[in-house]
Amino acid sequence: MSEERRNEEKEKRWYVVNTYSGHENRVKENLERRLESMGIQDSLFRILVAEEPEIEIKNGKKVEKMKNLFPGYLFVEMIMTDEAWYVVRNTPGVTGFIGSSGGGAKPFPVSPDEMESILRRMGKSDQKVVVDFGVGDVVTILSGPFSGREGTVSTMNDQTQVASVMINLFGRITPTDISYNDLQRVDN
Description:
alpha+beta, Alpha-Beta Plaits, SH3 type barrels, five-stranded antiparallel β-sheet, four-stranded antiparallel β-sheet
């Protein structure tokens, strides 16, 4: 085993756990119970079902419900010890880890940047992006389907780190929500 891989096992990192679709919250509860009963609180920290609120209209009324961003998956923040790996793998409803090649190979963690993006989308990020733009400024979109387009910032949500940018799509000015990380101010 490489020295890098050995050090990785001592670090607190995020991993993706595969579950039966629709059972993510049940698996989360099972893991939280096992965390206590099997005494692995020093190896397993946060268990997260990536959800965001979604407005749905039912019978003419707006109803807010939680939409799972990754059906069939949940995220666990853990130190990849043999014991913690065994407990998570053998929790009812868990079908495996993403990034494990099988045959006893431990999975690879989610990159910190990817996990930060997911946490920010859910409003659970501890890191705040420092931006040099504000409402009314012209910005360039750096990535995603609108990469390279310019628009004007109309609103900013510092909690979710998302700005609403007015961009010209097919001759119409359209508001589009873009992560602060994906925006850069245009200097005139």
